[in-house]
Backbone:
């Protein structure tokens, strides 16, 4: 297993090159194996504040992700199914403060969540860490100036947004 294999493909989904991999109506993604697939699931969805142990959730989801990891590595494909499951479980709102509708996970808890996930599918953990980093920076700003990023953080929690960046310092 190549834990962080095919970074170019994953970065393309986040808007850095290879734009043909992203469907124009995000949150839909193109998968080589399954065509265009939704990035959310309608069943099993819940609010992020219901999760108290994000690492434990990764251990629950992880075995399914691990089963698919080698296929994604072999096909050089994005982990869309894994992202759909993460979205259904409100994982993208884990770091958003509870008072804004998120999971309220601390920075160490987010690190533990990503570390646990990486044991099952390094590519999913890497892609999720890109989102988590931007959210953590927005939370840092929110603690210093609530108006600066409150709207973004509420949208991440309420709309289950996946936040992306160009990789520059636009998140500060």
Residues:
């Amino acid at each position: 297993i190549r834990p962080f294999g095919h970074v170019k493909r994953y970065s393309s989904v986040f808007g850095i090159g290879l734009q043909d991999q992203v469907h124009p109506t995000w949150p839909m993604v193109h998968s080589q194996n399954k065509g265009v697939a939704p990035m959310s699931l309608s069943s099993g969805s819940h609010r992020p504040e219901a999760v108290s142990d994000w690492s434990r959730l990764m251990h629950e989801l992880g075995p399914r992700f691990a089963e698919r990891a080698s296929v994604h590595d072999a096909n050089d494909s994005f982990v869309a199914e894994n992202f759909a499951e993460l979205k259904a479980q409100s994982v993208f709102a884990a770091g958003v403060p509870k008072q804004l509708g998120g999971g309220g996970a601390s920075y160490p808890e987010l690190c533990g969540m990503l570390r646990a996930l990486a044991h099952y599918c390094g590519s999913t953990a890497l892609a999720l860490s890109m989102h988590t980093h931007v959210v953590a920076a927005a939370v840092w700003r929110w603690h210093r100036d609530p108006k600066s990023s409150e709207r973004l953080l509420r949208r991440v929690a309420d709309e289950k947004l996946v936040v992306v960046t160009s990789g520059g310092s636009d998140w500060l």
In short: The beta strands are 28-31, 35-38.
